[in-house]
Amino acid sequence: MTNTNHSNFDYILDLSCGYWKSHVLFTAVEFDIFTLIGKGNLTAKKISQSIHADERATEMLLNALVSLELLVKHENYFSNSRISNLYLVKEEPHYLGDSLHHFHNIMENWTMLRETIETGKAVSLKNLPEDADPHDTRDFITAMHNIASVKADELCSKIDLKKSKMLLDLAGGPGTYAIALAKANPHLKAVVFDLEHVIKLTMEFIKAVGMEDRVTVQSGNCLEGNFGKNIYDTVLVSNLLHSYNPSNNTMILKKCWDALKDGGQVIIHEFVLGETKTQPQFAALFSLNMLIGTQEGASYAESEYRTWLKNTGFKYISRVGLEYNSTLIIGSK
User: Fold this and answer.
1) Which of 87, 114, 116, 83 is nearest to 100 (CA)?
2) Alpha carbons 230 and 333: distance in angstroms, whole number
3) Which domain holds residue 151?
């Protein structure tokens, strides 16, 4: 009889049905169950009536959420767990529901992983018009705002902008980081650079916090034209380079060099792989996500970022580790 390691068996089984957990979370967010419950206690019957769903099925969903430690059950009443109150209730500052909606949207792309591996091309993009955005822009930008809102405080604490008066937030999307950095540094003005249809949404986020006097926008394509000459003290390149190949990334960093004043700094914020490219786990999986969803994207190792920076002329290159699977790589002009 073959000896079976039950922990290994459970691990493989857990991997194979991992999407069950994702779907439970996605469905609960789509019904906005966590906001409905808030900090109170509700029965399955009351919740099912509020979301216009079957009571028996709703109770099964709620019990599954308890098993995932997203709800707490006492007798017949359900309440949010601490983590759900923090991240899954609308209007809370760290709400992640829009980002979960984005992950739900791209889930179908992952069903094409086998064909993508066989062809080496993003199968999910093959039937789209050349100029089509594979994401719903508003959903995607709002999702990025969710994630950036959680990371912004730490980013502000790790970036030294005492000598910076002008910052360029390259492909800054909702402008969340630019706004947070400007708030943390009263002497700083920021420009959010992104595609024209994105910039329209960026302005909504800027106006919502009354920062129009210090955070402005510029439309453009980071692969075309330039970002200006000797204008900025700091260029933030956050979660952009994973969308492109090494050649294009070198070109983008050269434009950052040109846009910086002497002594200025470029700050790359990315999911950085170790040298074997097998860890951290999120960055390794995210690389596949870029393979599936972009024409040429991937996660990259620290040595690759350092090489691109050196080849562009940057010096005094340093690394700053962050929580939430992120890393800063900083170079000076």
Assistant:
1) 87
2) 11
3) 107-332
Rounded CA-CA distance 239/41 in Å is: 39
The two three-digit tokens of residue 207, written as one number: 């106006």
Q: Does residue 98 lie in a domain region?
A: no
Query: What was the pLDDT predicted at 2?
Result: 55
C-alpha–C-alpha distance, residues 37 and 89, integer Å: 9
d(CA 136, CA 152): 24
Single-letter residue type at 5:
N
Q: 242 and 145 share a domain?
A: yes
What is the average pLDDT value for the chain, to the nearest integer? Answer: 94
Q: What is the pLDDT of residue 125?
A: 73
Q: Is the pLDDT at 90 greater than 60, yes or no?
A: yes
Task: In whole angstroms, give the CA distance from residue 319 to residue 333.
Answer: 16
What the block records as the tokens of 310 is 């050196």
How many folded domains does the chain comprise?
2
Task: Phi first, then psi: give them for residue 294, nearest 5 degrees.
Answer: -135, 170
* 16 found inside a domain: yes
Tell whether 116 and 154 lie within a shared domain: yes
State whether 85 and 120 are in the same domain. Answer: no
Among 143, 81, 157, smallest CA distance to 323 is for 157
pTM: 0.92
CATH number at 295 reads 3.40.50.150
pLDDT digit string, tens, across residues 17-40: 999 999 999 999 999 999 999 978
Express each pLDDT in 223-241 by its tens digit. 998 999 999 999 999 999 9
**And the tokens for 161?**
């902008």
Q: At what angle do helices 246-259 and 302-312 cross, to 10 degrees?
A: 50
- Residue 1's pLDDT is 47
| Domain-ending residue, one of 43, 62, 92 | 92
Distances (CA, A) of 63 to 24, 48, 78, 102: 10, 13, 9, 25
Whether 183 and 270 map to the same domain: the answer is yes
